[in-house]
Queue: 3 jobs
Job 1
Amino acid sequence: MDSVTGRNRPGRGVLVTGTGCKPVVTGTREAVELIAYYRVSTTRQGESGLGLEAQQAKVQQMARERGAVVVAEFVEVESGRKADRPQLAAALVEARKRGAVVCVAKMDRLARDAELVLRLNREAQNNGMGRFLFCDLPEIDATSAAGRMLLTMMAAVAEFESRRIGERTSEAMAAAKARGVKLGGLRANTLMRNDAARDRANGEAEKLRGVLAPMVAAGMSLRQMSAALAGAGKRNGKGEPLAAVQVSRILSRLALA
């Protein structure tokens, strides 16, 4: 079964609002339903919210401009060149069920692999999804010949940039190695610090088990859990409510996900 578009591998998603497969009625007109997909490349970015908040802001702005409603959000912590994306698979399942549009802040947040981007676009056309909407390329209609050509070009540019970053990194590492710089490996002190940090994180998560377990049982979304935790005084280092991906990682530590 395909690791991204297969129907048998839905990841954990966050249903925010809206019911059924029809557009949400707001006032006197029907609003288009958006499924928001966010991706950060590293665990550190995911836990800190760096990059995620900017993506959320772009999607919300696009929703306001289009008179649309974000009915579900899915957050992935994974490299843009990897095709194994349980959260993206779950987003596609939800989009097919609703006939909704999958909204992504930037095309490279969907993928940095041109073949994968085009395959996902074909999936949208063939399986009842509304289509993909990219906030950085909002006018591209990939259902038309011209739109597909532009999407192909932009996806190829994103893949080129990703591969060049990898090449430059490899070249820099090779040059450093030639100068005698020791690369790689973890020192004993680093391992000890990592273990201590993991133990602290597990301990902090365990303190929240009694609060989170009933929320999970009640089917609350990650956003709702974040708001409840904020009300109880659990916030991030900036004093802000936890990002959805932070709550998700706490649930994973507690085996509640």
Note: The first strand starts at residue 14 and ends at 15.
Job 2
Amino acid sequence: MTVCGGLLLAGCSTETKYKWLSTFFDGVPVPGATNAPPPVVPEEMAAANSSPNALPPKPAVKVVNTHTTHPPFADGQCTECHESKYSQGLKGTQNAVCFSCHDDFLAKARIKHQPVENGECSSCHDPHESEYKNLLRKKGNELCLICHDDPLAAGKVKHQAVESGDCLDCHSPHASNFKGLLKKSVKDTCFDCHDDVAKKKVVHQPVGDGDCLACHTPHASANKHLVTKTVPGLCWDCHDNFLEKAKFKHDVVEDCTSCHNPHQSDEAKLLAKSLPALCLDCHDAKDLKTDKGHAGAENKSCLECHDPHVGDNSNLLKPNAAGNLPAPPASAPAK
């Protein structure tokens, strides 16, 4: 009967076939129907689609996959590193195994990171796979802080490059020819960002020599501008302390940077301004003109008569100027 029914329905339309078949059999699918379950629409999406003023759905956030796999492990080539497929033992020391594929970056380097020199590659890298780039065991600075103390904890003033950056911005993780595993010299490392500190006519010698660390700490400090000490103590590390035996001191002399630029200047002695403009930042020109000692000194430099730092008298007059002061008026004879 089934064969006869098939022959009778061979030339029929879909609707006719459905009528005939449903007469004799149960569960005949309705034409156009599907066994796939209906799509599930989240409630918030359904509500949004039903509103005439609904905003378009936000685009999906692209997830960047940083997972990395060591190629020999991915290819099942266990014996590239191990004694056999069934042994965890390595074919040699970690350095020997790793450098059988990777370039030996220790051969020509002067400064070597201790774990690398000790052949402890796996202290930083996972030998098989990792969720981080370069098979690292942890992300960025978190890895460095497993061994190194947090350099930012050392002071309230933090170097922005350290606080918002990566240790590898300045340091090489394996080996270097520069102290501190720097990628470049101190001068070139600092000048990558601070490129405007040595372009004027007069440059402070430590700056010109690229010895930024003579005055600054690279990570964090208790002092403003990341200086290792406050002034004038910092300046006394190189300059003679002329305040120790001074009878009189210039009011501003405790802060050298009141008058001097610590890095560079277009003026002699690294002065922040030319004279007398620098002096007139504090001393009023009108008051100076009323002082008899300044008579005829309009075209002279302040430093011809005054010492800018200390002196044996309250006006900080130099010895030659003090001897040329007009004599005080004679007192009237007593009657």
Note: The chain is about 20% helix and 5% strand.
Job 3
Amino acid sequence: MPLASVVFAEARMLLNDVAAKLYTDTILLPPIKKAYRELQQNLVDNGVSVARDQSTALTVGSTVEVLDFASTPALPSNLLYPIHLDEKLVGQADTDYVPMTERAWPPDLTPSDLRQYWSWLEDEIKIPQATGSTVIRVRYWGGLAAITGASTDIPILDSETFLASRTAAIAAFSLGKQPTLAAILNEDAEKALAILLSTSVKNRQALPTRRRPFRSFRFGSRFFFGGR
């Protein structure tokens, strides 16, 4: 499992700063964090498991219609996208969980004992009201632990080439004010990402997920940052 220090060193080589006179680990930390989030989002979009996780049992009050990171109860802090929701009545055994149905938009229903439906909109889970509190369990794609420094492990195999190129591209554009170099590095990053996704998808053909093209990274008002 590679360390972030490997990515830092390769990014500095691409930026012609092997001695770290300008692009120190501290300077490169925000760019690598951004590149790492983009990589996880692309993997999830293409049906590649980054970290599948499950929430604790969430006891949801009868009038609650939104679950997000600030609600009571709150969604797990590392949630990227929900995959599946189950629910049961308060006091029932775990064997009594029943699946909820995902809808594109929240239905307008007369409240009943169970909520039955859920929608994922604007980074929130929307649910109907119920006649009483219910218990909801969320299965989701979760983000990996954030990169905090050179000693952080990166558990995504063969990701160093993409991360180094993308980190260097972000740094060259937003910090070094070198748009031409940033564009060249970004092309390298996209090629590396395409290879990484192709390899990862082939290794996980059994996943029942529709694959989507990887997110491209462009210049613009968002400082050459791809992703959300």
Note: The chain has four helices and nine strands.
